């Protein structure tokens, strides 16, 4: 700590240059925090996928419907513990920007297969009694200020209600649910499949995909193959995969997010490497006589090199801390998109590591030059 005033004075020798370099690094780490935070939030859904479940879709595409008559055949496959279904409803509330992942299900079957969804028994019974009932995730209830007993309307981008000829579907909120272990899953809603199936103008008797729980996760691959074999060469061939594989393939429909994030950050930090490296080289070049004086006063070559590296480290760590702090403050604004309100700790940890590596990379060459500095030549201006 006794050398801190010396480091601080050297860092602010050229205030304008230091400020602009600092801002560049702050922006880079703000971008790092936001992008890696979004990437980590999306990957969380993949990592939280249950190893005891399979997702069965049409072999053609996820949007291709499957007949509900397949349920008994899937349930009869050895190793299957339970079968539930869901349909893509494509809903939004009042404005297309307010997407709601509302899913028509048989609630009893769904809760058996997906026990992470917690709903009070009386609210499950209320949904089963009310044809237009809706059970809403706790986060979605809070987002729109909904209350149990309230009547709302969701607009479907897919299904038309044959009773009124519109795509607006009225619901009575009869309960709320919470999803254990993943807050991002509390943004959805469940309603009765029979309500959709009786009122839609097409697709009657079909579902979007099957959710299959298995007795032994070590047998998942064999059970998936058995399900697909059962419907091979039929009009409704299936593609069965683990929940994790399904989540990964679903994300890739929007693009390889992980690759996109890494490509953007790679370009940013590659540019930053040259910018900060040039700043440190210029700073050392301007202080060659001063470094020579330090050596004359008894500073060893190793100590001078350490001082230069420490100055680079101080600049990068302060700027990185500011950038990541800004990311922590801004990230909660993305809750409606990523479903989480805090920047994951591993993003902050990786940011700290990147800051140290950046400091070593940009300060390494100037420090090596300072270490090799000959006192006579430096004082002579050679």
The gist of it:
The chain crosses the membrane at residues 259-277, 313-335, 347-368. This protein is α+β, with helices and mostly antiparallel strands. Helix content is 53%, strand content 18%.
What does this 3D model show about the protein?
The two termini are 33 Å apart. This protein folds into 2 domains: 4-45 and 256-379, no CATH class; 50-252, no CATH class. By secondary structure, it is of the alpha+beta class. The protein is elongated and about 90 Å long. It has helices at residues 4-11, 15-47, 70-75, 107-113, 121-129, 138-144, 193-199, 220-230, 243-252, 257-286, 288-296, 301-330, 335-338, 345-371, 375-379; strands at residues 53-58, 66-67, 80-86, 91-92, 99-105, 117-119, 133-137, 151-156, 168-179, 188-192, 206-207, 209-214, 238-242. The strands form 3 sheets. A 6-stranded mixed barrel has the order 4-5-10-7-9-8, surrounded by 4 helices. A 4-stranded antiparallel sheet has the order 3-12-1-13, with helices on both faces. A two-stranded antiparallel ribbon has the order 2-11. A hairpin with a 6-residue loop joins β4 and β5.
